[in-house]
Amino acid sequence: MHRILLEDGAKPVRQPQRRLNPVILDVVKKEVTKLLQAGIIYHISDSQWVSSVQVVPKKTGFTILKNEKDELILTRVENSWKVCINYRRLNQATRKDHFPLPLIDQMLERLAGKSHYCFLDDFFGYFQIHIAPEDQEKTTFTCPFGTFAYRRMPFGLCNAPSTF
């Protein structure tokens, strides 16, 4: 369970809603609908902490697909959008965990020379972790479709990596 513990004397912040163009508005609507249906977020009418929605382009990449001749071909992934919540102000007021994350170069050194590797994709891994009920209202965000809070841990919270 993820907790959001605030620094002593932290003052709540209510960020204003951002103006979104029609393309981005549709992206946000689809994401909010999906998260509502999955029970990851819920409507909330009032909260001391309100953050704004931000939509950013996803990094492009490549994937391997089969063509009509059953040949594997390298294919560029189409650009898409990622809906994020701007938790900067909440993160400034959050007491930071002191959990040391491993350094990637040290992890790679430990893997060097091994004969077997395993790749695990934690698809929506953060959403597997519940937020403590008393802290859920701190994750409130606003968009043109309403004001919502998370039941599950979203990306963007400063202590999320150490909880994960």
TrEMBL record:
It comes from the Eukaryota. It comes from Flemingia macrophylla. This is Reverse transcriptase domain-containing protein. Residues 78-164 form the Reverse transcriptase domain. SUPFAM superfamilies: DNA/RNA polymerases. Pfam families: RVT_1.
